[in-house]
């Protein structure tokens, strides 16, 4: 009987990636495994066919030979399902390792966890950059046992159950599963005399002080990575990293948007009407801003190069000043008289429109709106 195409057996395309082949195999293996098919010989043969196809297509050399020469390009005597010697435990451990505690290839040494530290900065410090000292609680390598977990002068011994593999294999007929070693809990080592300081864990909790160099121009949401400053690894694994998460505090004057700064500048209505120079704040001190005559409230003035220098590109943003005209308060009787004289001098109707064009335009629009409603 001729063999079926391996890609057809697994139901995948010929250009399928290895992860897709593994997914297809997992789905079929769970469906056709002998433990589920209750001794059905036909389905058992189908399962062997699936297993054989999986072994070939997940081996880069075998797959290349199969793609070029077909079944003749691979040795059928080494197939997983036709009397060969392939170790089903290896295959099953790779695919179902997440279910049964990890496959044989899982490293016993584990990298330490990454940590996050929230750092609040003033706008000035974020714009200029600075060095900040932070205190971070973390699991660090025990200095008493140098991270081994064993009492000083002793050392861990190889686990007699798994022989240092960290995993043991359980077989039920044709079916084989790798599981975490119950004796050493996957470490591959046994500590007969644990370190008193870390109680055999190889790590202790400690608060460490670190200096963080904050580059100029950072903004809320930026992260500064300190490699190797996270938690110490387990069983000799490398340490994790520390990510410093930047948050910029609200500023009483400026609002930041990317590399630009915004602020509101109140001016008197006489200065707005007559024009002149006013002082406006920047992060580097006060500067003069020339206000043109007849300036209206809400007008935006741009001061180029007075914003923030980008931490990535080096480009410098601008400062945008929004003019807000302030109505005078607490007027004296004489001041009120002067304002009334000014208002009368502007006249009424079309004559006043010369001085207050927005007012006339607004009321003309209101009149048209109501005329349209009644027409």
Note the main attributes of this structure.
single chain; about 375 residues; alpha+beta; Helix Hairpins; Chaperone, DNAj Protein, Chain A; HSP40/DNAj peptide-binding domain; four-stranded mixed sheet; three-stranded mixed sheet; 11 helices; about 30% helix; elongated
Can you put this structure into words, describing what you see?
The structure is a single chain. This protein is of the alpha+beta class. It folds into four domains: 6-86, Helix Hairpins (Orthogonal Bundle); 115-248, Ribbon (Chaperone, DNAj Protein, Chain A); 255-326, HSP40/DNAj peptide-binding domain (Sandwich); 333-374, no CATH class. The protein is 29% helix and 26% strand. The protein has helices spanning 6-10, 18-32, 34-37, 41-57, 60-69, 88-96, 123-128, 269-274, 333-345, 350-353, 357-374; strands at residues 115-121, 130-141, 157-158, 167-172, 175-180, 189-190, 203-214, 223-226, 242-248, 255-257, 260-268, 276-282, 285-291, 300-303, 319-326. The strands form six sheets. The protein has a four-stranded mixed beta sheet with strand order 10-11-15-14. The chain has a three-stranded mixed beta sheet with strand order 1-9-8. Strand 12 (276-282) and strand 13 (285-291) form a beta hairpin. The termini are far apart.
